[in-house]
């Protein structure tokens, strides 16, 4: 169910449209900025998904349709975020969305360029207490979402349709997706909260 909610939210363009950064927004932004340039020939050497593991030397990315791939870091690996702002390998987080441009040599995949997007979490609302929304993810983990005055809320009303929402709309039992980043205590700072009110 959460997967369907997330798929619906992505289809509606909320995460890609509202967040000007992130792997999901990158292809559209690139296409818009360079209408004459096509990325079709490179598609087989680009892999996008969610970071499931990272170390100083390698990165594992999971894609819902294509499974997981592990990429090795080299001295030439470039890391960027947002609109191609320079970033570092240490800024890649578990649950971040990334798009990896890679090359295959001797049966191994080497990362040439990693584009960092926003991390996201999806789940069922357990409680709302002040500026903290506690959700339970599909794998049974409780995650505390911290919201603030700059957090944006969107209610998905239909395919490609959304309307502005607010924290007061969020109720226990509702399913939602949030985009943002984890802090040092592994709480989630939510920049965007998208939900269906049904």
Structure write-up:
The protein has 198 residues and is mainly beta. The protein folds into 2 domains: 14-32 and 46-118, Beta Barrel (OB fold (Dihydrolipoamide Acetyltransferase, E2P)), CATH 2.40.50.320; 119-195, Beta Barrel (OB fold (Dihydrolipoamide Acetyltransferase, E2P)). 12% of the residues lie in helices and 48% in strands. The chain has 3 helices and 13 strands. The protein has helices spanning 2-11, 14-18, 26-33, and strands spanning 46-54, 58-63, 67-72, 78-81, 85-86, 96-105, 108-129, 132-136, 142-146, 152-158, 161-164, 175-182, 188-195. Strands 7-8-9-13-12 form a 5-stranded mixed barrel. Strand 6 (96-105) and strand 7 form a beta hairpin. The chain is elongated and about 55 Å long.
Short description:
This protein is mostly beta strands and 198 residues long. It has 3 helices and 13 strands; from the N terminus they run αααβββββββββββββ. A 5-stranded mixed barrel has the order 7-8-9-13-12.
List keywords for this structure.
single chain, 198 residues, mainly beta, OB fold (Dihydrolipoamide Acetyltransferase, E2P), 2 domains, 3 helices, disordered N terminus
Strand order, main sheet: write it out: 7-8-9-13-12
Measured between the Cα atoms of the first and last residue, the distance is 12 Å
Average pLDDT, rounded to a whole number, is 79
**Do you know the CATH topology of the largest domain?**
OB fold (Dihydrolipoamide Acetyltransferase, E2P)
CATH superfamily of the largest domain: Copper binding periplasmic protein CusF
Helix-strand topology string: HHHEEEEEEEEEEEEE
- Biggest pleated-sheet summary: 5 strands, mixed, barrel
Low-confidence stretches: 1-42
The 3D shape can be described as: elongated
Gyration radius over CA: 17 Å
Number of strands: 13
The assigned CATH architecture of the largest domain is: Beta Barrel
Count the domains: 2
